[in-house]
Amino acid sequence: MTPPTKKWDAIVVGSGQGGTPLARKLARAGMQTALIEGEHVGGTCINEGCTPTKTMIADAKLAQWVREAPDRGIGVAGFSVDLAQIIARKNSVVTAFRTAGEKGLAATPNLTLIRGFGSFSGPKTLVVGEQEHRADLIFINAGCYPAIPPVPGIDTVPYLTSKTILDIPVIPAHLVVLGGGYIALEMGQLFKRLGSEVTLIERGKALLSREDEDIQQAMQQFLEEEGIRVYLDTQVRKVSSWHRDAPATDALMLDLDPGSGSLSASHLLVATGRAPRTAELHLERTGVEMDAHGFIKVDDQLQTNVPGIYALGDIKGGPAFTHISYNDYIIISRNLLDKANMSIKDRQVPYTVFTDPQLGRIGLTEKEALAQGLPIRTAILPMTHVARAIETGHTKGLMKAIVHTDTRQILGAAILGEEGGEVMTVLQMAMAGGITYDTIRDMVFAHPLYAESLNNLFLTLER
Protein backbone atom coordinates (compact mmCIF):
# COMPACT_ATOMS: atom_id res chain seq x y z
CA MET A 1 0.00 0.00 0.00
CA THR A 2 1.41 3.41 -1.01
CA PRO A 3 1.97 5.75 1.98
CA PRO A 4 -0.09 8.94 2.00
CA THR A 5 1.53 12.06 0.56
CA LYS A 6 3.49 14.08 3.10
CA LYS A 7 2.80 17.79 2.94
CA TRP A 8 5.41 20.45 3.69
CA ASP A 9 5.61 24.22 3.57
CA ALA A 10 8.82 23.97 1.54
CA ILE A 11 10.94 21.29 -0.11
CA VAL A 12 14.60 21.79 -0.96
CA VAL A 13 16.14 19.29 -3.39
CA GLY A 14 19.87 18.98 -2.79
CA SER A 15 22.02 19.94 0.19
CA GLY A 16 24.68 21.96 -1.62
CA GLN A 17 26.06 25.33 -0.62
CA GLY A 18 22.79 27.00 -1.56
CA GLY A 19 20.29 24.34 -0.54
CA THR A 20 21.57 23.67 2.97
CA PRO A 21 21.51 27.24 4.32
CA LEU A 22 18.22 27.89 2.50
CA ALA A 23 16.55 24.88 4.15
CA ARG A 24 17.79 25.98 7.57
CA LYS A 25 16.70 29.58 6.99
CA LEU A 26 13.19 28.60 5.93
CA ALA A 27 12.86 26.18 8.84
CA ARG A 28 13.99 28.77 11.36
CA ALA A 29 11.37 31.11 9.90
CA GLY A 30 8.74 28.59 10.98
CA MET A 31 8.23 26.65 7.75
CA GLN A 32 7.98 22.87 7.92
CA THR A 33 10.83 22.10 5.53
CA ALA A 34 12.06 18.91 3.88
CA LEU A 35 15.63 18.70 2.57
CA ILE A 36 16.06 15.84 0.09
CA GLU A 37 19.61 14.54 -0.43
CA GLY A 38 20.57 11.47 -2.46
CA GLU A 39 24.28 11.38 -1.61
CA HIS A 40 26.26 13.41 0.93
CA VAL A 41 25.31 16.55 2.81
CA GLY A 42 27.32 19.47 1.49
CA GLY A 43 26.96 18.86 -2.23
CA THR A 44 29.76 19.01 -4.77
CA CYS A 45 31.85 21.66 -3.01
CA ILE A 46 32.43 19.84 0.24
CA ASN A 47 32.48 16.28 -1.05
CA GLU A 48 34.15 16.32 -4.47
CA GLY A 49 34.96 19.92 -5.32
CA CYS A 50 36.41 22.85 -3.40
CA THR A 51 37.19 21.18 -0.08
CA PRO A 52 38.97 18.00 -1.23
CA THR A 53 40.74 19.53 -4.22
CA LYS A 54 42.09 22.56 -2.38
CA THR A 55 43.24 20.31 0.48
CA MET A 56 45.23 18.15 -1.94
CA ILE A 57 46.48 21.18 -3.88
CA ALA A 58 47.91 22.54 -0.62
CA ASP A 59 49.83 19.30 -0.08
CA ALA A 60 51.11 19.34 -3.66
CA LYS A 61 52.29 22.92 -3.18
CA LEU A 62 54.21 21.82 -0.10
CA ALA A 63 55.82 19.07 -2.17
CA GLN A 64 56.87 21.69 -4.71
CA TRP A 65 58.37 23.86 -2.00
CA VAL A 66 60.43 20.92 -0.77
CA ARG A 67 61.47 20.11 -4.33
CA GLU A 68 62.64 23.70 -4.85
CA ALA A 69 64.19 24.12 -1.38
CA PRO A 70 67.78 23.28 -2.44
CA ASP A 71 67.66 26.27 -4.82
CA ARG A 72 67.17 28.43 -1.71
CA GLY A 73 70.10 26.86 0.14
CA ILE A 74 67.95 24.45 2.16
CA GLY A 75 68.92 20.82 1.77
CA VAL A 76 66.18 18.19 1.99
CA ALA A 77 67.04 14.52 2.45
CA GLY A 78 64.77 11.57 1.76
CA PHE A 79 62.03 13.52 -0.01
CA SER A 80 59.06 11.30 -0.93
CA VAL A 81 55.34 11.58 -1.57
CA ASP A 82 52.87 9.35 0.30
CA LEU A 83 49.65 9.54 -1.73
CA ALA A 84 47.72 7.40 0.75
CA GLN A 85 48.48 9.87 3.54
CA ILE A 86 47.53 12.83 1.35
CA ILE A 87 44.19 11.20 0.51
CA ALA A 88 43.63 10.31 4.17
CA ARG A 89 44.13 13.94 5.21
CA LYS A 90 41.79 15.03 2.43
CA ASN A 91 39.15 12.56 3.60
CA SER A 92 39.44 13.71 7.20
CA VAL A 93 38.87 17.34 6.19
CA VAL A 94 35.89 16.38 4.01
CA THR A 95 34.40 14.26 6.80
CA ALA A 96 34.77 17.09 9.30
CA PHE A 97 33.01 19.56 7.01
CA ARG A 98 30.27 17.08 6.11
CA THR A 99 29.69 16.09 9.74
CA ALA A 100 29.42 19.73 10.78
CA GLY A 101 26.78 20.23 8.09
CA GLU A 102 24.80 17.20 9.22
CA LYS A 103 24.88 18.35 12.85
CA GLY A 104 23.66 21.79 11.82
CA LEU A 105 20.70 20.26 9.99
CA ALA A 106 19.84 17.95 12.88
CA ALA A 107 19.84 20.87 15.31
CA THR A 108 17.45 22.97 13.22
CA PRO A 109 13.79 22.88 14.34
CA ASN A 110 11.13 22.29 11.65
CA LEU A 111 13.72 20.74 9.32
CA THR A 112 13.71 17.10 8.18
CA LEU A 113 16.58 15.59 6.19
CA ILE A 114 15.27 12.94 3.79
CA ARG A 115 17.90 10.55 2.43
CA GLY A 116 17.33 9.41 -1.13
CA PHE A 117 17.04 10.64 -4.70
CA GLY A 118 13.94 12.65 -5.46
CA SER A 119 12.08 12.93 -8.74
CA PHE A 120 8.94 14.82 -9.65
CA SER A 121 5.69 12.93 -9.98
CA GLY A 122 3.65 16.07 -10.62
CA PRO A 123 3.88 19.88 -10.67
CA LYS A 124 4.51 20.27 -6.92
CA THR A 125 5.19 16.70 -5.78
CA LEU A 126 8.34 14.60 -5.51
CA VAL A 127 8.82 10.92 -4.85
CA VAL A 128 11.65 9.57 -2.70
CA GLY A 129 11.54 5.79 -2.59
CA GLU A 130 7.88 4.92 -2.09
CA GLN A 131 7.02 8.16 -0.33
CA GLU A 132 5.49 11.17 -2.09
CA HIS A 133 6.16 14.69 -0.81
CA ARG A 134 4.28 17.87 -1.71
CA ALA A 135 4.87 21.59 -1.13
CA ASP A 136 3.81 24.85 -2.71
CA LEU A 137 7.42 26.08 -2.52
CA ILE A 138 10.11 23.92 -4.09
CA PHE A 139 13.79 24.83 -4.47
CA ILE A 140 16.04 22.78 -6.75
CA ASN A 141 19.74 22.68 -5.82
CA ALA A 142 20.62 19.32 -7.37
CA GLY A 143 23.88 20.43 -8.99
CA CYS A 144 25.87 18.96 -11.87
CA TYR A 145 28.11 16.01 -12.68
CA PRO A 146 31.18 15.61 -14.93
CA ALA A 147 30.20 15.65 -18.61
CA ILE A 148 31.86 13.04 -20.80
CA PRO A 149 32.51 14.11 -24.42
CA PRO A 150 31.51 11.76 -27.26
CA VAL A 151 35.05 10.66 -28.06
CA PRO A 152 35.06 7.31 -29.87
CA GLY A 153 36.21 4.55 -27.55
CA ILE A 154 36.07 6.56 -24.34
CA ASP A 155 33.38 4.29 -22.93
CA THR A 156 35.73 1.31 -23.33
CA VAL A 157 38.57 2.64 -21.13
CA PRO A 158 38.77 3.34 -17.37
CA TYR A 159 38.83 7.14 -17.56
CA LEU A 160 38.88 9.36 -14.48
CA THR A 161 36.71 12.36 -13.61
CA SER A 162 37.22 15.24 -11.20
CA LYS A 163 35.46 13.08 -8.63
CA THR A 164 37.12 9.69 -9.06
CA ILE A 165 40.67 11.02 -9.38
CA LEU A 166 40.49 12.27 -5.79
CA ASP A 167 40.67 8.68 -4.53
CA ILE A 168 43.09 7.25 -7.07
CA PRO A 169 45.27 4.59 -5.33
CA VAL A 170 48.50 5.37 -7.20
CA ILE A 171 50.23 8.42 -8.58
CA PRO A 172 49.72 8.17 -12.37
CA ALA A 173 52.90 7.58 -14.34
CA HIS A 174 51.52 9.67 -17.20
CA LEU A 175 48.25 11.53 -16.72
CA VAL A 176 46.60 12.92 -19.84
CA VAL A 177 43.99 15.60 -19.06
CA LEU A 178 41.27 16.46 -21.54
CA GLY A 179 40.26 20.09 -21.07
CA GLY A 180 41.73 23.54 -20.58
CA GLY A 181 39.47 24.99 -17.88
CA TYR A 182 40.18 25.54 -14.21
CA ILE A 183 39.53 21.92 -13.16
CA ALA A 184 41.91 20.61 -15.82
CA LEU A 185 44.65 23.07 -14.88
CA GLU A 186 44.32 22.56 -11.12
CA MET A 187 44.32 18.77 -11.35
CA GLY A 188 47.09 18.70 -13.93
CA GLN A 189 49.43 20.81 -11.80
CA LEU A 190 48.45 18.91 -8.65
CA PHE A 191 49.49 15.54 -10.04
CA LYS A 192 52.57 16.92 -11.77
CA ARG A 193 53.76 18.10 -8.38
CA LEU A 194 53.01 14.73 -6.82
CA GLY A 195 55.24 13.08 -9.43
CA SER A 196 53.19 12.36 -12.56
CA GLU A 197 54.11 13.17 -16.11
CA VAL A 198 51.21 15.36 -17.25
CA THR A 199 49.85 16.31 -20.67
CA LEU A 200 46.96 18.75 -21.18
CA ILE A 201 44.89 18.52 -24.36
CA GLU A 202 42.60 21.47 -25.12
CA ARG A 203 40.42 21.60 -28.22
CA GLY A 204 40.32 25.40 -28.17
CA LYS A 205 43.07 27.78 -29.16
CA ALA A 206 44.02 28.71 -25.58
CA LEU A 207 43.71 27.66 -21.97
CA LEU A 208 41.01 29.41 -19.91
CA SER A 209 39.09 30.56 -22.97
CA ARG A 210 37.40 33.55 -21.31
CA GLU A 211 40.63 35.25 -20.25
CA ASP A 212 42.67 37.82 -22.14
CA GLU A 213 45.52 36.54 -24.27
CA ASP A 214 48.28 37.81 -21.98
CA ILE A 215 46.76 36.00 -19.00
CA GLN A 216 46.33 32.82 -21.04
CA GLN A 217 49.93 32.93 -22.23
CA ALA A 218 51.33 33.60 -18.76
CA MET A 219 49.30 30.70 -17.36
CA GLN A 220 50.51 28.34 -20.06
CA GLN A 221 54.11 29.50 -19.62
CA PHE A 222 54.41 28.66 -15.94
CA LEU A 223 52.65 25.31 -16.38
CA GLU A 224 55.08 24.40 -19.14
CA GLU A 225 57.99 25.59 -17.00
CA GLU A 226 56.94 22.98 -14.45
CA GLY A 227 57.16 20.33 -17.16
CA ILE A 228 53.49 20.03 -18.16
CA ARG A 229 52.99 19.46 -21.89
CA VAL A 230 50.19 21.51 -23.43
CA TYR A 231 48.44 20.67 -26.71
CA LEU A 232 46.17 23.46 -27.98
CA ASP A 233 43.69 23.41 -30.86
CA THR A 234 43.81 19.62 -30.65
CA GLN A 235 41.03 17.05 -30.57
CA VAL A 236 41.18 13.43 -29.51
CA ARG A 237 39.77 11.34 -32.34
CA LYS A 238 39.84 7.99 -30.54
CA VAL A 239 40.75 6.43 -27.20
CA SER A 240 41.70 2.77 -26.82
CA SER A 241 43.49 0.36 -24.52
CA TRP A 242 46.75 -1.29 -25.44
CA HIS A 243 46.94 -5.04 -25.55
CA ARG A 244 47.00 -6.93 -22.28
CA ASP A 245 50.81 -7.23 -22.09
CA ALA A 246 51.50 -3.52 -22.51
CA PRO A 247 53.27 -1.82 -19.57
CA ALA A 248 51.03 0.04 -17.13
CA THR A 249 52.63 3.34 -18.13
CA ASP A 250 51.25 2.85 -21.65
CA ALA A 251 47.84 1.40 -20.80
CA LEU A 252 45.94 3.86 -22.98
CA MET A 253 46.38 5.19 -26.49
CA LEU A 254 44.93 8.49 -27.70
CA ASP A 255 44.77 9.23 -31.41
CA LEU A 256 44.87 12.97 -32.03
CA ASP A 257 44.04 15.20 -34.98
CA PRO A 258 45.82 14.35 -38.22
CA GLY A 259 49.27 15.83 -37.93
CA SER A 260 49.33 15.68 -34.12
CA GLY A 261 50.14 11.99 -33.91
CA SER A 262 49.16 9.91 -30.89
CA LEU A 263 49.87 9.68 -27.16
CA SER A 264 50.18 6.79 -24.77
CA ALA A 265 49.24 7.26 -21.15
CA SER A 266 48.72 5.39 -17.91
CA HIS A 267 45.64 7.41 -16.91
CA LEU A 268 43.09 9.69 -18.56
CA LEU A 269 41.27 12.50 -16.74
CA VAL A 270 38.21 13.93 -18.48
CA ALA A 271 37.74 17.57 -17.40
CA THR A 272 35.77 19.05 -20.29
CA GLY A 273 32.82 20.50 -18.40
CA ARG A 274 29.82 19.57 -16.27
CA ALA A 275 26.22 18.66 -17.07
CA PRO A 276 23.10 19.41 -14.96
CA ARG A 277 21.38 16.71 -12.91
CA THR A 278 17.99 17.36 -14.45
CA ALA A 279 17.21 14.15 -16.33
CA GLU A 280 16.53 12.12 -13.17
CA LEU A 281 14.31 14.89 -11.76
CA HIS A 282 11.70 14.38 -14.52
CA LEU A 283 11.00 18.07 -14.79
CA GLU A 284 8.72 17.40 -17.75
CA ARG A 285 6.11 16.47 -15.14
CA THR A 286 6.26 19.99 -13.70
CA GLY A 287 6.25 22.18 -16.79
CA VAL A 288 9.57 23.74 -15.71
CA GLU A 289 11.49 24.96 -18.75
CA MET A 290 15.11 24.02 -19.49
CA ASP A 291 17.58 25.21 -22.08
CA ALA A 292 19.08 23.10 -24.86
CA HIS A 293 21.73 21.73 -22.48
CA GLY A 294 19.29 20.72 -19.75
CA PHE A 295 19.95 23.63 -17.38
CA ILE A 296 16.89 25.03 -15.63
CA LYS A 297 15.76 28.45 -16.85
CA VAL A 298 15.17 31.07 -14.14
CA ASP A 299 14.31 34.75 -13.98
CA ASP A 300 16.40 37.43 -12.26
CA GLN A 301 15.02 36.31 -8.90
CA LEU A 302 15.76 32.62 -9.55
CA GLN A 303 12.14 31.54 -10.05
CA THR A 304 11.32 29.18 -12.91
CA ASN A 305 8.41 29.66 -15.27
CA VAL A 306 6.31 27.66 -12.76
CA PRO A 307 5.36 29.91 -9.82
CA GLY A 308 6.70 28.54 -6.54
CA ILE A 309 9.49 26.46 -8.10
CA TYR A 310 12.98 27.96 -7.90
CA ALA A 311 16.45 26.79 -8.96
CA LEU A 312 19.76 27.75 -7.41
CA GLY A 313 23.37 26.75 -7.85
CA ASP A 314 24.98 25.05 -10.83
CA ILE A 315 21.80 23.38 -12.10
CA LYS A 316 20.47 26.70 -13.40
CA GLY A 317 23.55 27.31 -15.58
CA GLY A 318 25.54 30.49 -15.51
CA PRO A 319 28.60 30.90 -13.26
CA ALA A 320 29.21 27.50 -11.63
CA PHE A 321 30.84 28.58 -8.38
CA THR A 322 30.11 27.76 -4.75
CA HIS A 323 29.96 31.44 -3.81
CA ILE A 324 27.36 32.06 -6.52
CA SER A 325 25.24 29.19 -5.18
CA TYR A 326 25.45 30.71 -1.71
CA ASN A 327 24.50 34.11 -3.08
CA ASP A 328 21.50 32.47 -4.79
CA TYR A 329 20.39 31.37 -1.33
CA ILE A 330 20.79 34.92 -0.01
CA ILE A 331 18.68 36.34 -2.83
CA ILE A 332 15.89 33.76 -2.52
CA SER A 333 15.67 33.89 1.27
CA ARG A 334 15.78 37.68 1.45
CA ASN A 335 13.11 38.02 -1.21
CA LEU A 336 10.78 35.43 0.33
CA LEU A 337 11.21 36.29 3.99
CA ASP A 338 12.13 39.99 3.93
CA LYS A 339 10.45 41.15 0.70
CA ALA A 340 13.84 42.54 -0.34
CA ASN A 341 13.36 42.42 -4.13
CA MET A 342 16.97 41.36 -4.72
CA SER A 343 18.14 40.21 -8.16
CA ILE A 344 20.98 38.27 -9.78
CA LYS A 345 21.18 40.93 -12.49
CA ASP A 346 24.51 42.76 -12.56
CA ARG A 347 25.84 41.03 -9.44
CA GLN A 348 29.59 40.65 -9.10
CA VAL A 349 31.02 37.29 -10.16
CA PRO A 350 34.51 36.91 -8.68
CA TYR A 351 36.40 33.64 -8.97
CA THR A 352 39.82 32.18 -8.38
CA VAL A 353 41.64 29.48 -10.32
CA PHE A 354 43.68 27.61 -7.71
CA THR A 355 46.71 26.92 -9.77
CA ASP A 356 50.01 28.04 -8.27
CA PRO A 357 50.21 30.94 -8.73
CA GLN A 358 46.50 31.68 -8.45
CA LEU A 359 44.39 33.60 -10.90
CA GLY A 360 41.93 35.94 -9.21
CA ARG A 361 39.34 37.40 -11.59
CA ILE A 362 36.61 40.02 -11.17
CA GLY A 363 34.57 42.05 -13.65
CA LEU A 364 35.28 42.59 -17.33
CA THR A 365 38.26 41.32 -19.25
CA GLU A 366 39.97 43.71 -21.66
CA LYS A 367 38.46 41.95 -24.67
CA GLU A 368 34.96 42.07 -23.13
CA ALA A 369 35.27 45.79 -22.42
CA LEU A 370 36.45 46.48 -25.97
CA ALA A 371 33.62 44.38 -27.39
CA GLN A 372 31.18 46.59 -25.48
CA GLY A 373 32.76 49.70 -26.96
CA LEU A 374 33.75 51.11 -23.58
CA PRO A 375 36.47 53.76 -23.35
CA ILE A 376 39.13 52.01 -21.31
CA ARG A 377 42.72 52.07 -20.20
CA THR A 378 44.62 48.96 -19.16
CA ALA A 379 47.09 48.79 -16.28
CA ILE A 380 49.60 45.93 -16.25
CA LEU A 381 52.32 45.17 -13.69
CA PRO A 382 54.47 42.03 -13.97
CA MET A 383 54.97 40.18 -10.70
CA THR A 384 58.71 40.61 -11.27
CA HIS A 385 58.09 44.26 -10.30
CA VAL A 386 56.26 43.42 -7.07
CA ALA A 387 58.48 43.78 -4.01
CA ARG A 388 56.76 41.09 -1.99
CA ALA A 389 56.98 38.65 -4.91
CA ILE A 390 60.70 39.31 -5.32
CA GLU A 391 61.34 38.85 -1.60
CA THR A 392 59.44 35.56 -1.43
CA GLY A 393 60.64 34.27 -4.79
CA HIS A 394 57.12 34.09 -6.29
CA THR A 395 57.55 36.26 -9.38
CA LYS A 396 55.44 34.34 -11.90
CA GLY A 397 52.44 36.12 -13.38
CA LEU A 398 51.13 39.68 -13.59
CA MET A 399 48.57 42.09 -12.23
CA LYS A 400 46.10 43.58 -14.70
CA ALA A 401 43.22 46.01 -14.30
CA ILE A 402 40.74 47.58 -16.73
CA VAL A 403 39.54 51.11 -15.90
CA HIS A 404 36.99 53.43 -17.48
CA THR A 405 38.76 56.38 -19.08
CA ASP A 406 36.10 58.93 -18.13
CA THR A 407 34.72 57.77 -14.78
CA ARG A 408 38.03 56.31 -13.54
CA GLN A 409 36.07 53.36 -12.17
CA ILE A 410 37.67 49.91 -12.10
CA LEU A 411 35.78 47.70 -14.55
CA GLY A 412 37.67 44.46 -14.05
CA ALA A 413 40.89 42.86 -12.90
CA ALA A 414 42.95 39.71 -13.24
CA ILE A 415 45.61 39.03 -10.63
CA LEU A 416 47.80 36.12 -11.72
CA GLY A 417 50.26 35.68 -8.89
CA GLU A 418 50.85 34.40 -5.39
CA GLU A 419 47.61 34.90 -3.39
CA GLY A 420 46.04 36.35 -6.53
CA GLY A 421 42.55 35.67 -5.23
CA GLU A 422 43.14 37.67 -2.06
CA VAL A 423 44.56 40.64 -3.97
CA MET A 424 41.68 40.48 -6.46
CA THR A 425 39.25 40.78 -3.55
CA VAL A 426 40.69 44.19 -2.65
CA LEU A 427 39.73 45.43 -6.11
CA GLN A 428 36.34 43.71 -5.89
CA MET A 429 35.59 45.72 -2.75
CA ALA A 430 36.74 48.88 -4.49
CA MET A 431 34.43 48.17 -7.42
CA ALA A 432 31.50 47.49 -5.07
CA GLY A 433 32.12 50.75 -3.25
CA GLY A 434 32.66 52.87 -6.37
CA ILE A 435 36.27 53.63 -5.40
CA THR A 436 38.22 54.98 -8.37
CA TYR A 437 41.57 53.65 -9.50
CA ASP A 438 43.42 56.83 -8.52
CA THR A 439 42.18 56.45 -4.95
CA ILE A 440 43.73 52.97 -4.91
CA ARG A 441 46.85 54.39 -6.56
CA ASP A 442 47.33 56.87 -3.68
CA MET A 443 46.07 54.67 -0.83
CA VAL A 444 48.31 53.65 2.07
CA PHE A 445 48.80 49.87 2.16
CA ALA A 446 50.90 48.02 4.72
CA HIS A 447 54.42 47.23 3.52
CA PRO A 448 55.44 44.78 2.19
CA LEU A 449 52.23 43.09 1.00
CA TYR A 450 51.18 41.89 -2.43
CA ALA A 451 48.22 44.28 -2.21
CA GLU A 452 50.62 47.20 -1.74
CA SER A 453 51.64 46.86 -5.39
CA LEU A 454 48.16 47.97 -6.43
CA ASN A 455 49.70 51.44 -5.95
CA ASN A 456 52.25 50.65 -8.63
CA LEU A 457 49.75 48.87 -10.84
CA PHE A 458 47.69 52.05 -11.23
CA LEU A 459 50.76 54.26 -11.36
CA THR A 460 51.49 52.63 -14.72
CA LEU A 461 48.52 54.59 -16.10
CA GLU A 462 50.31 57.85 -15.31
CA ARG A 463 53.44 56.98 -17.27
UniProtKB/TrEMBL annotation:
Annotated binding of FAD, by residue: 54, 118, 314
Cofactor(s) this protein cannot do without: FAD
Any one Gene Ontology molecular-function term assigned to this protein's record: flavin adenine dinucleotide binding
One Pfam short name: Pyr_redox_dim
Cysteine-cysteine disulfides: 45-50
Location of the Pyridine nucleotide-disulphide oxidoreductase dimerisation domain: 349-456
Domain FAD/NAD(P)-binding: 9-325
Active site: residue positions: 447 (proton acceptor)
Keywords from the UniProt entry: FAD, Flavoprotein, NAD, Nucleotide-binding, Oxidoreductase, Pyruvate
InterPro entries: FAD/NAD-bd_sf, FAD/NAD-binding_dom, FAD/NAD-linked_Rdtase_dimer_sf, Pyr_nuc-diS_OxRdtase, Pyr_nucl-diS_OxRdtase_dimer
Binding site residues for NAD(+): 179-186, 202, 273
Cofactor, free-text remark: Binds 1 FAD per subunit.
Family assignment from sequence similarity: Belongs to the class-I pyridine nucleotide-disulfide oxidoreductase family.
PANTHER family reported in the protein's UniProt record: MERCURIC REDUCTASE (PTHR43014:SF2)
Protein name per its UniProtKB record: Pyruvate/2-oxoglutarate dehydrogenase complex dihydrolipoamide dehydrogenase (E3) component
The organism of origin for this protein: Dinghuibacter silviterrae
Lineage: Bacteria, Pseudomonadati, Bacteroidota, Chitinophagia, Chitinophagales
